[in-house]
Amino acid sequence: MTLPPGDTPLYNHPLPEIERWLKILGCEQDSKELHCWRVDRPTWKAELCLEVEELIVRYLKSGEGGEDIQRSFKYSLSRKDIEDAVFCGP
Question: Is 58 helix (H, G, I), strand (E, B) or coil?
């Protein structure tokens, strides 16, 4: 299977393709919570969770005073928009 075009809303992507996309972007699936993924970049780390209605991203220790920053993205956004927003960092 190939990924749908980047301007396709994420809700139109089959789950195996979303998982493949996350792997391509360097994310690792949590072995206990299979809906959650981790990403480690040189300047930030995050946890991504594929929830029922949205993708929840928690940037670990990235906020003021080392607090986590949490953002959510509806699956109606395109894969490209989500990729640009999430992977630019906190």
Answer: strand
* Main-chain phi, psi angles of 76, to 5 degrees: -75, -15
pLDDT tens-digit map of 61-88: 998 899 999 999 999 999 999 999 999 9
Please tell me the distance from the alpha carbon of residue 85 to that of residue 90, in angstroms, as a whole number: 9
**pTM greater than the 0.70 cutoff:** yes
C-alpha neighbours within 13 Å on the C-beta side of residue 68: 11
| Integer Cα distance of 27 and 20 in angstroms | 9
| Torsion sign (Cα): 77, 15, 24, 44 | positive
